[in-house]
Design a protein that fits this description.
alpha/beta; eight-stranded mixed sheet; six-stranded mixed sheet; 18 strands; binds zinc ion
């Protein structure tokens, strides 16, 4: 299976947290957390269409300014999600600048901001042309764990405890459509943009009897199929990828239960490991995890792969110890499970 989501941490493990998730073959990306994102090239930042912010401690939110700066004057619709108080935080950022010339931009940057509470959300929109004054009163909607959904993709959140509410975040392909090369060859079809249309039709669960046409450029004379016929010949459906991002959480029974359920069967879990187990008391006081706890949670959730980050500067030069501790715990609890 060729993965569609390609997550990578924005910074090294001692620097600000942030997970950049671009989509294969599409100028689109998701980001979890907006710490310092200066290392991301502008062309990557401009792909972002959705940002989930776990909480607004400065190391997770200072990158909002760079995002805003780069997107200003472009035709973009940016979805932003964060925990309770997020609307005020975003409005505070926006009101820190003077926008008297913002209506001169040709293209409107629109921000759709959603504050996520345990069982409801509050949404508010802002537009550059309107000097980022709110366009509406907050709209309240029930929240059932899903932040964003489209036929192929789902972004979810869970509320965790960091002495303040902190969101755990995940993105999941609902399933993955693999294209079989031999099938294309057999039918004499050339790959092209039509394949993404074809995949979209499958993701939308269009009627298999619906007609699907492959243009003459990709097949001599052009060919018509039913969607069902074509999928039988050229597609194989496999489970989609799941990427989970957990940071800034205390190790407690309640957090553990929620994280294990939320991250269950992820292909890749990104999880903080701020301290070493020998400093677990400090970890507890500061509402963070140790590397051992991170490895244990990864094992209990049955994830295929995990990466740790957000190391305390006190371990500078000793990062191998953190990686080793997390891996040992993962192997230990995997065997147990
Ligand atoms: Zn942090
Ligand atoms: Zn924090």
């Amino acid at each position: 299976m060729r993965p569609c989501l390609h997550p990578k941490l924005v910074n090294g493990p001692f620097d600000d947290p942030g997970l950049f998730i671009p989509f294969l073959f599409s100028k689109r990306a998701i980001i979890f957390d907006l710490g310092d994102i200066d290392r991301l090239p502008a062309k990557d930042i401009l792909k972002i269409s959705l940002a989930g912010v776990t909480h607004t401690h400065v190391d997770h939110f200072i990158g909002f300014d760079r995002l805003l700066r780069l997107m200003l004057g472009r035709e973009k619709n940016l979805l932003l999600f964060g925990p309770a108080g997020f609307l005020k935080n975003v409005e505070g950022k926006l009101s820190g600048y003077t926008w008297n010339l913002a209506d001169k931009y040709n293209y409107p940057l629109c921000l759709e901001v959603t504050e996520v509470h345990p069982d409801f959300t509050l949404g508010r929109n802002y537009r550059c042309q309107d000097r980022f004054e709110p366009l509406n009163d907050p709209v309240r909607q029930p929240f059932n764990g899903v932040l964003f959904m489209e036929p192929a993709l789902k972004v979810s959140a869970v509320h965790l405890d960091h002495k303040i509410p902190c969101l755990g975040l995940s993105v999941e392909e609902r399933f993955h459509v693999n294209i079989i090369k031999e099938g294309l060859n057999r039918l004499g079809l050339q790959p092209g943009p039509w394949l993404s249309e074809f995949k979209q039709a499958i993701y939308r669960r269009d009627d298999p009897k619906a007609k699907f046409e492959v243009a003459p450029r990709q097949s001599p004379g052009g060919k018509q199929f039913t969607l069902g016929e074509l999928s039988e010949q050229i597609a194989r459906i496999t489970a989609g990828q799941k990427i989970t991002y957990i940071t800034d959480v205390v190790y407690s029974e309640s957090n553990q239960d929620k994280i294990v359920a939320f991250a269950r069967n992820s292909d890749h879990l990104f999880i903080e490991a701020v301290f070493m187990e020998k400093d677990r008391r400090v970890a507890r006081q500061k509402y963070h995890l140790t590397a051992r706890q991170a490895g244990k949670l990864a094992a209990l959730a049955g994830v295929k792969k995990f990466s740790i980050f957000h190391f305390s500067p006190r371990y500078s030069g000793q990062e191998n110890l953190l990686y080793q501790e997390a891996l040992d715990a993962y192997n230990h609890y995997r065997q147990k499970g």
